[in-house]
Amino acid sequence: MWQDLFARSVASGAGNEITAILSQAGDDRIIAFSGGYPHPDTFPRKALEQSFSRVVADPAALQYAPTAGLPGLRDWFTGWLGEHDGLRPAEDEFIITSGGMEGLKLLTACLLDPGDRVLVEGPTFMGAIMAIQSAMGVIEAVPMDSGGLDVDALERVLSSSPSAKFLYVIPDYQNPMGVSLSAERRHALIALARRHGLLIIEDVAYRELGYDGDRRPSLRTLGPDVVAQLGTFSKTFSPGLRMGWISAPAPLVAALSGAKQFTDQCTGALGQLLLEDYGRSGGFDDGIAASRAFYRRRREAMLSALDAHLPEWVRFTRPEGGFFSWLTVPDAIDTLTLAERALADGITFVPGGIFYPGDRGAHELRLAFSKVPEEKIDEGIVRLGKILSNFDRKGQ
């Protein structure tokens, strides 16, 4: 009965992959390299305790908020973007969302009709694939390498079939590969988008978590006429309060505001006031600096373990920020089978196929090191290395 009642997107199991990964990542009995969670030690508990009594006394704290977000938070954070990225969104170019995923859902709802073509990086964030597919968009993946999206390959795709509605890209410390788009390619991508009239959706979920302080120009700063920037506070503040933002051309923001009436109508006011208080106190910047150092240590532990314990025929990325390293194994090894063996040995990762819209990724996998206890990283990679070593290159 239920299978007959469910919409096609639900009956197909869309979203089950994310649910399973989040479930694994929350199991303390295993060493979970699967979920890209921020670590609880980076959450600003003391700052929130100190500000809560001040914030909750505000009459706006427990009331509905304006659809685009509370004026105080919008003023503080658009100013923050202007200071750090050199472009302050105008009032009609900015909206607060209930996390990055709501932002993705709003964008796909406003931009896609069934059958519309969308370009993404290959591989890309699985949540983006699911949001596009739930809107019945048709996805085509553009190759990546160590310098991020292959812009030359994108140009060939656009020249042969220019009808894409938008390109979704994660330029900074990409999920899942951990690589960043080079400065040269950023400029080339904006020029290409203008030539072809292509909208770029720039997801900056990990932008603030660069380990060495290198800050390449955002795509939104380089091309505000062709870029919608999608952000989240889950990695820099708290995922539990579910807040994000979109900075985009005014006509698109107006459409997003209308679409938000059919999701939650407004993002929770209490969380917005807590974030504004945290930001204006200087805690936001201090917290980002502390998080960079925190995750840098875990990255170093992860890379040292990968260097020491994996077979020499396994390739992996060396991220300069973010939460992830991307592994490639010989073609004969199926990472779904590998994942089953790993789970039996008490470790988890995400097989690569989930990060592609088609049937690629069978010999790739993602490791997330952000939430794994630092002392468990080496132990987990030792186990993974032993499992891989028990395969020969024919996958047996």
Automatic annotation (TrEMBL):
UniProt domain Aminotransferase class I/classII large: residue ranges: 46-384
Protein name: 2-aminoadipate transaminase
Keyword Transferase among UniProt keywords: yes
Subunit structure: Homodimer.
GO biological process per UniProt: alpha-amino acid metabolic process; antibiotic biosynthetic process
PANTHER family membership: AMINOTRANSFERASE, KYNURENINE_ALPHA-AMINOADIPATE AMINOTRANSFERASE, MITOCHONDRIAL
One MF term in the entry's GO annotations: pyridoxal phosphate binding
Superkingdom of origin: Bacteria
Cofactor or coenzyme needed: pyridoxal 5'-phosphate
Family the UniProt entry places it in: Belongs to the class-I pyridoxal-phosphate-dependent aminotransferase family.
Keywords linked to the UniProt accession: Aminotransferase, Antibiotic biosynthesis, Pyridoxal phosphate, Transferase
